[in-house]
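Cont'd.
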Amino acid sequence: EDKVVQSPLSLVVHEGDTVTLNCSYEVTNFRSLLWYKQEKKAPTFLFMLTSSGIEKKSGRLSSILDKKELFSILNITATQTGDSAIYLCAVEPGGSNYKLTFGKGTLLTVNP
Amino acid sequence: GAVVSQHPSWVICKSGTSVKIECRSLDFQATTMFWYRQFPKQSLMLMATSNEGSKATYEQGVEKDKFLINHASLTLSTLTVTSAHPEDSSFYICSASGTGGTNEKLFFGSGTQLSVL
């Protein structure tokens, strides 16, 4: 059974801080790992990672995958209150047609 | 990017009634749609995979007679919660797989908050 474990489950920081969110996984025939941000409704896509060691970057957010250690991190630098959300990590097995297994998420709260 | 429309966005119903939730892919054809359930401060739990023109595949522990899924066309899948009870109150989200311009290949609806009284 595929498994995704995220840590920490919740995190409270002040604006301007840098945070690192963790995601470890076990999956049969790995295809990709995805990060989503969920505020109040639907998750919004952040990154899809397929290869080890290649950092993906979008503004203040970046993510990297380690396929040997079965691990990914999501970094957010210079956090803002608008970064407050649940961050979800998910894995996609090969041949699954995007049938994702989600972790429990990390609830990030950024205080002014 | 591709758009998935889900409605209603929220519904309140009496115990014992049935509720239908629709999920539409607006600008692409979705051969596969997924239905998730999410409790407060918890993650998305996959309920079933819906393929156009065939029976849905349900995850272990999900009652297929309770949660009826119909995927009659390439742009529409419906989830009907039959004889709803308070324990069915939850946030339900659909997603559809399609081809986006980036790496994003799974598109989510905006979710339906179901409250059963």
